[in-house]
Amino acid sequence: MTIFFYTKTDAYGEFSNFSKHGIEVDGLWWPTVEHYFQAQKFEDKEYQEKIRTAHSPKQAAELGRSRKVAIREDWETVKEEMMFRAVLKKFKTHPKLSELLLFTGNQNIVENAPGDYYWGIGKNGTGLNKLGEILVSVREQLKI
Prior knowledge:
Blueprint: E1 2-5, E2 23-25, E3 28-30, H1 33-39, H2 45-52, H3 57-65, H4 75-93, H5 95-103, E4 108-111, H6 130-143
Parallel strand pairs: 1-4
Antiparallel strand pairs: 2-3
Helix pairs in contact: 1-2, 1-3, 4-5, 4-6
């Protein structure tokens, strides 16, 4: 069986990076995983702070997708590790989320994001589902 999620109001919407489950990383509180992840694209500390304090995860994502500020040169090689780090922190920070993820057993987890063929499965289901894979990896870590 497969668990599909996408928006924060869907079943398993807590798995979304937009869910309001903040994390503390390097002494800073990030309102959502999306805020943290988007800010990590940049070396500019002021721009990172602008993203961290964005009013919503949607606004944080929009700021993170802007190319008015240069993204870090190594982004493509570190982005999956950054995502894993943030998602693991989210589930370790929020015990009820950890329980929910562990409750999924060995089921496949899929981000059913129609516009995202890297982190999700895209409109036609051919995407890489990297976020789903990370959630499965985090679930394995939590079992230890």
